[in-house]
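for the recovery benchmark. tokens below, seq after
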């Protein structure tokens, strides 16, 4: 055991007799150890590292391709949406124009209909006025005739005898009946 610990303890001592030992001088052994470790890592880890880098490169390329495809799909969908928007805007403008035209047409139809209704009401009013005037004229004629008849009867009654009176009444009643048939 002492040999092993002595070999760790000997600092910077290399015997020329060919003994083997560990050099613990950090400044002298560190670059050599690191170059050996790096050499072994590069020699054995080169394939693994290359595979890891290739896999990473493929994932990155696949992600880029996928992103490009998604971007192209999104651009295509955006163009379709823009085309649909333009189409809907054109249709909305047509509906708006047609709606205004339809409103104007309905307005004029309503105005014309109202004018015709007012014209018919005016005609009905005028017919009613003429009818009422004619009825009033006929009533006045009948009253004038009745008063004239009563006045004539009164005059006849005072001047006529009973027999003449009866003949006159009968004649007047006959004339009155004939007049009534004519006026009806």
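predicted aa per position
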């Amino acid at each position: 055991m002492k040999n092993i610990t002595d070999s760790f303890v000997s600092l910077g001592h290399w015997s020329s007799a060919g003994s083997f030992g560990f050099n613990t001088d950090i400044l002298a052994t560190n670059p050599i150890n690191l170059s050996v470790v790096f050499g072994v890592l590069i020699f054995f880890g080169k394939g693994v590292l290359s595979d890891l880098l290739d896999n990473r490169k493929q994932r990155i390329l696949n992600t880029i391709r996928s992103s490009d495809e998604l971007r192209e799909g999104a651009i295509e969908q955006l163009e379709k949406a823009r085309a649909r928007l333009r189409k809907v805007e054109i249709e909305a403008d047509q509906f708006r124009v047609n709606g205004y035209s339809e409103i104007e047409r309905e307005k004029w139809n309503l105005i014309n209909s109202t004018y015709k209704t007012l014209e018919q009401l005016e005609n009905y009013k005028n017919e009613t006025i003429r009818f009422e005037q004619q009825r009033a004229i006929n009533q006045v004629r009948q009253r004038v005739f009745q008063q004239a008849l009563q006045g004539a009867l009164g005059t006849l009654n005072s001047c006529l005898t009973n027999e003449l009176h009866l003949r006159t009444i009968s004649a007047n009643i006959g004339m009155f009946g004939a007049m009534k048939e004519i006026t009806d």
